[in-house]
Amino acid sequence: MSEEIQTFTTEYLDQCAHLYIEVFNGEPWSEEWTFETAKARLFEILNTPGFVGFVFKHDELLGFVAGYCKQGQKSKSFYLEEICVRSHKQSQGIGTKLLNQLMDTLTAMKVTSVYLLTKKDGQAEAFYTKHGYQRSQHLILMAKRF
Fold it and tell me: What SUPFAM superfamilies does the annotation carry (predicted)?
Protein backbone atom coordinates (compact mmCIF):
# COMPACT_ATOMS: atom_id res chain seq x y z
CA MET A 1 0.00 0.00 0.00
CA SER A 2 1.31 3.46 -0.83
CA GLU A 3 1.26 6.39 1.54
CA GLU A 4 -1.78 8.62 1.50
CA ILE A 5 -3.17 11.63 3.28
CA GLN A 6 -6.91 11.65 3.88
CA THR A 7 -9.34 13.96 5.61
CA PHE A 8 -9.59 13.29 9.36
CA THR A 9 -13.15 12.05 9.94
CA THR A 10 -14.85 10.16 12.78
CA GLU A 11 -13.84 6.98 10.92
CA TYR A 12 -10.29 7.56 12.23
CA LEU A 13 -11.19 8.68 15.75
CA ASP A 14 -10.33 5.43 17.59
CA GLN A 15 -7.05 4.92 15.71
CA CYS A 16 -6.03 8.54 16.34
CA ALA A 17 -6.90 8.23 20.05
CA HIS A 18 -4.63 5.18 20.36
CA LEU A 19 -1.85 7.03 18.54
CA TYR A 20 -2.36 10.09 20.75
CA ILE A 21 -1.89 7.96 23.88
CA GLU A 22 1.25 6.32 22.46
CA VAL A 23 2.87 9.64 21.63
CA PHE A 24 1.81 11.91 24.47
CA ASN A 25 2.13 9.38 27.28
CA GLY A 26 5.73 8.82 26.15
CA GLU A 27 8.77 11.08 26.31
CA PRO A 28 9.15 14.02 26.29
CA TRP A 29 5.52 14.71 27.21
CA SER A 30 4.96 12.03 29.89
CA GLU A 31 1.23 12.75 30.09
CA GLU A 32 -1.44 10.37 31.39
CA TRP A 33 -4.08 10.02 28.69
CA THR A 34 -6.56 7.16 28.72
CA PHE A 35 -8.36 5.95 25.61
CA GLU A 36 -11.54 7.64 26.82
CA THR A 37 -9.93 11.04 27.52
CA ALA A 38 -7.89 11.02 24.29
CA LYS A 39 -10.94 10.09 22.24
CA ALA A 40 -13.04 12.77 23.96
CA ARG A 41 -10.36 15.42 23.25
CA LEU A 42 -10.11 14.51 19.58
CA PHE A 43 -13.90 14.26 19.26
CA GLU A 44 -14.20 17.81 20.63
CA ILE A 45 -11.61 19.12 18.17
CA LEU A 46 -13.21 17.25 15.27
CA ASN A 47 -16.59 18.79 16.09
CA THR A 48 -15.37 22.37 16.53
CA PRO A 49 -16.77 24.72 13.87
CA GLY A 50 -14.12 25.41 11.25
CA PHE A 51 -12.37 22.04 11.83
CA VAL A 52 -9.64 21.02 9.38
CA GLY A 53 -7.66 17.83 9.85
CA PHE A 54 -5.81 15.10 7.99
CA VAL A 55 -4.47 11.62 8.68
CA PHE A 56 -1.33 10.06 7.20
CA LYS A 57 -1.50 6.37 6.33
CA HIS A 58 1.08 3.92 5.02
CA ASP A 59 -0.22 0.40 5.67
CA GLU A 60 -1.41 1.80 9.03
CA LEU A 61 -2.28 5.19 10.46
CA LEU A 62 1.03 6.88 11.28
CA GLY A 63 0.03 10.44 12.05
CA PHE A 64 -2.56 13.17 12.06
CA VAL A 65 -2.95 16.94 12.22
CA ALA A 66 -6.04 18.72 13.55
CA GLY A 67 -7.28 22.18 14.40
CA TYR A 68 -9.84 24.77 13.43
CA CYS A 69 -10.29 28.11 11.71
CA LYS A 70 -11.32 31.20 13.61
CA GLN A 71 -12.68 34.37 12.08
CA GLY A 72 -10.88 37.55 13.11
CA GLN A 73 -11.87 41.14 12.46
CA LYS A 74 -10.05 41.25 9.11
CA SER A 75 -8.97 37.70 8.33
CA LYS A 76 -9.18 34.04 9.29
CA SER A 77 -6.59 32.33 11.44
CA PHE A 78 -6.10 28.66 12.24
CA TYR A 79 -5.43 27.20 15.66
CA LEU A 80 -3.28 24.09 15.26
CA GLU A 81 -4.48 21.94 18.16
CA GLU A 82 -2.59 18.72 17.48
CA ILE A 83 -0.02 17.17 15.23
CA CYS A 84 0.93 13.66 16.17
CA VAL A 85 3.24 11.13 14.50
CA ARG A 86 3.92 7.59 15.70
CA SER A 87 7.02 7.79 17.90
CA HIS A 88 9.24 5.42 15.91
CA LYS A 89 8.28 7.17 12.64
CA GLN A 90 9.17 10.71 13.73
CA SER A 91 11.89 12.61 11.83
CA GLN A 92 11.00 10.76 8.61
CA GLY A 93 8.98 13.54 6.93
CA ILE A 94 5.46 12.49 7.98
CA GLY A 95 4.86 15.59 10.10
CA THR A 96 6.17 17.78 7.28
CA LYS A 97 3.83 16.13 4.77
CA LEU A 98 0.87 16.62 7.09
CA LEU A 99 1.83 20.25 7.72
CA ASN A 100 2.25 20.88 3.97
CA GLN A 101 -1.19 19.39 3.24
CA LEU A 102 -2.66 21.56 5.98
CA MET A 103 -0.97 24.71 4.68
CA ASP A 104 -2.13 24.06 1.09
CA THR A 105 -5.69 23.63 2.33
CA LEU A 106 -5.57 26.71 4.56
CA THR A 107 -4.13 28.82 1.75
CA ALA A 108 -7.02 27.78 -0.50
CA MET A 109 -9.40 28.77 2.33
CA LYS A 110 -7.74 32.22 2.51
CA VAL A 111 -6.49 31.66 6.06
CA THR A 112 -3.69 34.15 6.76
CA SER A 113 -2.08 32.89 9.97
CA VAL A 114 -1.56 29.77 12.07
CA TYR A 115 -0.88 29.68 15.78
CA LEU A 116 -0.26 26.89 18.26
CA LEU A 117 1.00 26.03 21.72
CA THR A 118 3.88 23.64 22.37
CA LYS A 119 6.60 22.91 24.92
CA LYS A 120 9.45 25.35 24.57
CA ASP A 121 13.04 24.38 23.80
CA GLY A 122 12.19 20.85 22.72
CA GLN A 123 11.88 18.67 19.64
CA ALA A 124 8.41 20.04 18.85
CA GLU A 125 9.58 23.66 18.95
CA ALA A 126 12.54 22.74 16.72
CA PHE A 127 10.12 21.10 14.22
CA TYR A 128 7.93 24.20 14.03
CA THR A 129 10.94 26.55 13.84
CA LYS A 130 12.25 24.50 10.89
CA HIS A 131 8.93 25.18 9.15
CA GLY A 132 9.02 28.94 9.63
CA TYR A 133 7.13 29.32 12.90
CA GLN A 134 8.56 31.62 15.54
CA ARG A 135 7.83 32.55 19.12
CA SER A 136 5.29 35.34 19.23
CA GLN A 137 6.57 38.69 20.43
CA HIS A 138 2.99 39.88 20.94
CA LEU A 139 1.25 37.05 22.77
CA ILE A 140 1.90 35.14 25.97
CA LEU A 141 0.22 32.12 27.48
CA MET A 142 -1.46 32.85 30.78
CA ALA A 143 -3.01 30.21 33.00
CA LYS A 144 -4.84 29.92 36.29
CA ARG A 145 -5.13 26.69 38.24
CA PHE A 146 -8.00 26.13 40.61
Answer: Acyl-CoA N-acyltransferases (Nat)
Whole-number CA gyration radius for the chain: 15
Report the domain count for the chain.
1
Strand order through the sheet with 4-7 = 4-7, 51-58, 60-71, 76-85, 111-116
CA within 13 Å, CB half, 103: 13
Q: What pLDDT was estimated at residue 66?
A: 98
Q: Identify the CATH number of the domain in which residue 96 sits.
A: 3.40.630.30
Tens of pLDDT, residue by residue over 89-136, are 998 999 999 999 999 999 999 999 998 877 776 677 666 677 777 877
Position 97 scores a pLDDT of: 97
| Angle of CA points 85, 91, 97, to nearest 5° | 65
13-24 helix and 35-46 helix, angle to the nearest 10 degrees:
120
Residue 67 pLDDT greater than 90, yes or no: yes
Residue 83's alpha-carbon distances to 74, 93, 137, 142, in angstroms, are 27, 13, 23, 22
Burial class of 8 by CB neighbour count within 10 A (0 to 12, 13 to 18, 19+): buried
